[in-house]
Each structure stands twice: as C-alpha cells, then as structure tokens.
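Batch manifest, entry 17 of 40.
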Amino acid sequence: MKAAYIRLPGPPETIQYGDLPDPIVAPGQALVKMGAVSVNPIDTYIRNGANYWPLPDPYVIGSDLAGTVVAVAEGVKQVSVGQRVWCSNQGLMGRQGTFSELCAVDAHWLNPTPDKVADTDAAATALVGITAHLGLFRSARLQPGETIFVRGGVGGVGSMVLQMAKSIGARVITTAGSDEKAYQCQQLGADVVINYAREDVAQRIKSVAPNGVHVFWETLRDPDFNVAVDVMAERGRMVLMAGRDARPPFPVGPFYVKGCSLLGVVMFKATPEEQRQAANDINHWLDRGQLKAVIDRILPLKDAAEAHRLQEAHTIQKQSSLRGKLVLVP
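Output type: structure tokens
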C-alpha cells in the first residue's frame, strides 16, 4: 500500500511517501480502505519529535480517517465489510496513523458515516468535532441561551464549537483576522464576529456581553488568563485545548471570586464510549446539514509533507493562511 510515514522525527521534509506492507488485522480490528484523511496540529507536533509516547518504526502519520471497511477480524460486530466509517484517535498512544491506503483500526473507534456525507467532510470533522463536543457538552455543559466566546471561528475546532453551540441555541461571539474570514463566521451562524486585526477583542466582548460570557473557549497555545477572566460571567467556564508547554500568569483572585471553572479537554484521553456519544451527535448534525466541515483545500496523499508545512505555518508561525482543514485523498 502507499503511505505517508516517518522513520525519525523531524521537519515536514522527513515525511516519506511510498510503499509499506499492508497492515495485518488483529483481533478486535477492522481494515479500512482510506477515502480521506485530514491534518491536525497534534500530528505535526508528534512528527516533529514531541515525546508523548514511543512511535512504531515506520510510523504512519495522521489521526483522522474516513473510508470503507474491507475486512474485519473474527468476532467483530460493530462494523461490517462494505460499510462506510470514520474515526479519529489514531496515530496516538503508540497506534499507527491514518495516512495510508489501508488502515487497521480497533473497531470500537469506528463510527458509521451517514449516506449523504462525503468522506472528505467526515475526515475533516473527526478530531475537531469530537474535541468540540467533549468540551462543550461533557465539560462546560453549555446550555441554550448562554453566551459563548470562541477564539477563531473558522479554525478547525473553532468552527465546530461555533456551529455546535448555535445548534443548541447558544449565542456565539467569535474572532476572525480578516473581513473574508469574518463573513465565513457569519455564514456558519456566529452572532458577533470581532476582527482582531483592527478591534480590541476584550473591549468588544464587554460591549456585546456586558454581563460576561458563560463559556470562554480558548484555542491559543499561550492564553491570556487576565483577559479571559475579565470578560467571563459569574460562574463562567473556560475551556483549554492547547498549550501543553505554556506557563502563563494566572489571576487567582479574580478567578475564584467570580466562582469560575477551568476545564482542560484532551480528545485522545476520552473513552471509546465518550467519543461515540460525540460521534452520534456529529453524525446527526452532518446528516441534516446543521454541521458543515470547513475545508481549506484538498490535496493528494503524496503531498503530505506540504500539508504539514502549511499546517505548521498556520499553527506555529501564526501566518493565519488557512481557512479550515487540510484534507488529503489517495
């Protein structure tokens, strides 16, 4: 099979594209023929040497997958041959990744793909959608009528948070770095879009939410807690999903006096059952057009190194060049 893989960690140029042996289906697994995959920031961190867990050699990159089941191990009941499926949480915790024509996946991570949903959309929604759902509903317990601020409304996770929050009747405030991106946020349903290139984000939040936001969703790797706590409502909840190495100052006094909560969300530590609950809602919304994948571009699998370069330029170098997910197809 063709695959994008590394032998040793390093820059995007370490990604090789070529032939690897077809994976062997172990007990409890299904073999999936890849239809589409997508890039996430964590994929680039692992490829670059983040020492979270030992990697196989060779290590196939990637976390997200959508495709069709072509074989199942004896006793697997969750999926069947010919069924279209999607998943995330691969390439993590020592598992092989998804950037290959065939992937052997533990069946409990696989979710059915609705008939009307393309593989490209399912792959683009996988990790970011599960992350958003876990943070909004398991952790922050967002309620209809509450106000949420999410930074970066056309980002991978940000666009999912925006749409899911609107789907349950919350009021959404978000940010964008250009008029074009602001318009895209509005099309996704944002109630207020702040252009951070020319507006003071904190001041604008206060003007449109004078009583504070109930949920503050931070996507930055190095958050400014002073700003966040200042604009949060009494008993507000702040969700963090990035910044493993960040050590910013924290305003303990204002935070506890307001009775706020700080919630960390790590998608790959969620159980299969927690992820399945998220996937069920994601499938429901995708099938009804209430949740739309935000895709910047679709590339061939052989361009995996270029996809990682683009993702790093956006995430690490803050070039803000992407307007959605990078998706790859065979």
